[in-house]
Amino acid sequence: MSTAEEISAHSDRPDRSPTHQSEQPARFGSTARILHWAMAVSIVAMLFLGALLVGSLGNYDRVLVLHQTVGVIVVVLAVVRIGNRLRAAPPPQLPSIGRPERLVAGVSEALMYVLFVAQPLVGWALASASGIPIRLVGGILLPALVPENAPLYHLLREVHTVLAYALLVVFTAHMCAVLAHTLVLRDRLLSRMTFQLRRGGPD
What we know:
With 203 residues, this protein is an all-alpha fold. 67% of the residues lie in helices and 2% in strands. The protein has 6 helices and 2 strands, in the order H-H-H-H-H-E-E-H. The chain has helices at residues 3-11, 18-23, 30-55, 60-87, 99-130, 150-185, and strands at 134-135, 141-142. The protein has a two-stranded antiparallel sheet with strand order 1-2. Strand 1 (134-135) and strand 2 (141-142) form a beta hairpin. It is found in: Cell membrane.
């Protein structure tokens, strides 16, 4: 393995250095943390733009392009994140997280990954069934996943709405759980996914 490959592989491993063990829990690797926050911002943007579509009038086409673009970004990030998760094992769970909570966290995490991929793909199929060109920022056109079909469009619209609410609920529950650990239990759970600046150099 070359020096560059060794550095890259090391950056994806959980940080378990002695200094960090004495100050805070072992953190996720740099790649996992970058993907985590990129996903978080993209999910919030996708849900926000989706909500704007419901009440937008004059800016509907522009908002739709942004919504579809962010949806594609979410799918790409989700696939990359899943691949990184399979390649680099996460750090061990904190002692403050009991077995029942670990089970719930595992199920909710798996559900989030499914929704990260399913929601944008259903939206893509929804736009295809409506007959509206799927246009991204920069004028990029995506191929239709399904032929134009009015009954299918109405069905996919309902599914897309249900998945959006499900994603919102799971995403909110995840944030509430992290805040509870951070503000109530004070077990530094959030620090596993944060970037901290050191006096001796970058994170």
